[in-house]
């Protein structure tokens, strides 16, 4: 049975609008934050100095990463959310108790929030080693080339292909791992999020190459993630992009 038959058009539109609203709000936050960071870098002395890492700064960077991940990953999880909502509606029509769609989404986003904490810690370490600038972009050709090369190789690994397959097949994932209740819905969301993390975590590391607050670079990676997960020939696309990343790494080393 198709998704459209399981889930009325009205419900599909409501979910799509909700996810789009969350995505837009996240991007508006990033746009405002990028503008503020740009203004703070206009003073020559501020450009030359890295900000001090204390608890307040760590929390602010963590929030930046968390909201960025929401803005980047919510569009690509939309098919899975719609499928879950369709199954949930069918179960409710049979008087079966099932958790709301929000529980599944919450589980999915929890994975990316934990990743945001790890990314913030990585940023802290790179900043302490003077490998990134105050604008949170790599200041080392070796770091940039290394991240590009690692991402390119990862695109060819079996674990990447396995995770990408699960991300591209939400019906298969939900049907084989269905769990009842609120806790079950959250667990399914977490499981799907872990597959997406396994598919994309190295791509997210490339944010340090083009700039963590470079909105064009963020949008480019987010668009690629969506293409890889949703459009046909995702596995082939991943491997072609892997080759391009390795070539880019070589160019960085040769010209950097």
Please name the defining characteristics of this protein.
mainly alpha, disordered N terminus
Describe this structure as you would to a colleague.
This protein has one domain (3-255). It has twelve helices and no strands. The chain has helices at 3-6, 9-40, 44-48, 55-93, 101-128, 141-154, 158-168, 170-176, 181-205, 207-210, 215-230, 234-255. α4 (55-93) runs antiparallel to α5 (101-128), α5 (101-128) runs parallel beside α9 and α6 packs antiparallel against α12 (234-255). The protein is globular, with a radius of gyration of 20 Å. Mean pLDDT is 88; it is low at 1-5 and 44-48.
Could you provide a short overview of the structure?
The chain is an all-alpha fold. The N and C termini lie far apart (54 Å).
- What is the arithmetic mean of pLDDT? 88
Low-confidence spans: pLDDT under 50, at least 5 residues?
1-5, 44-48
What is Rg?
20 Å
Strand content: under 5%
The biggest beta sheet, please?
Answer: none
Shape: globular
Count of separate DSSP helical elements: 12
Order of helices and strands: HHHHHHHHHHHH
Residues in helix, %: over 70%
Distance between the termini: 54 Å
* Number of separate domains: 1
The helix-and-strand class reads mainly alpha
Number of strands: 0
Please specify the SSE layout and strand pairing.
Elements: H1 3-6, H2 9-40, H3 44-48, H4 55-93, H5 101-128, H6 141-154, H7 158-168, H8 170-176, H9 181-205, H10 207-210, H11 215-230, H12 234-255
């Amino acid at each position: 049975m198709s998704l459209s038959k399981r889930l009325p058009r009205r419900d599909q539109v409501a979910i799509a609008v909700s996810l789009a609203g969350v995505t837009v709000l996240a991007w508006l936050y990033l746009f405002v934050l990028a503008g503020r960071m740009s203004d703070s870098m206009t003073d020559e002395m501020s450009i030359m100095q890295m900000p001090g890492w204390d608890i307040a700064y760590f929390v602010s960077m963590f929030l930046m990463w968390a909201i960025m991940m929401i803005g980047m990953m919510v569009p690509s999880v939309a098919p899975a959310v719609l499928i879950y909502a369709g199954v949930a509606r069918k179960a409710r029509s049979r008087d079966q108790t099932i958790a709301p769609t929000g529980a599944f989404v919450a589980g999915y986003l929890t994975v990316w929030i934990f990743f945001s904490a790890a990314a913030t810690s990585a940023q802290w370490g790179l900043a302490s080693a003077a490998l990134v600038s105050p604008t949170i972009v790599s200041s080392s050709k070796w770091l940039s080339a290394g991240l590009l090369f690692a991402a390119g190789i990862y695109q060819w690994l079996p674990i990447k292909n396995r995770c990408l397959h699960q991300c591209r097949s939400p019906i298969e994932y939900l049907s084989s791992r269905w769990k009842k209740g609120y806790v079950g819905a959250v667990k399914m969301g977490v499981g799907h999020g872990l597959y997406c993390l396994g598919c994309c975590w190295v791509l997210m590391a490339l944010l340090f190459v083009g700039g963590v607050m470079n909105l064009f670079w963020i949008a480019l990676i987010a668009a690629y993630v969506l293409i890889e997960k949703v459009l046909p020939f995702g596995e082939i696309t991943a491997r072609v992009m892997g080759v391009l990343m390795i070539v880019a790494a070589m160019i960085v080393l040769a010209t950097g």
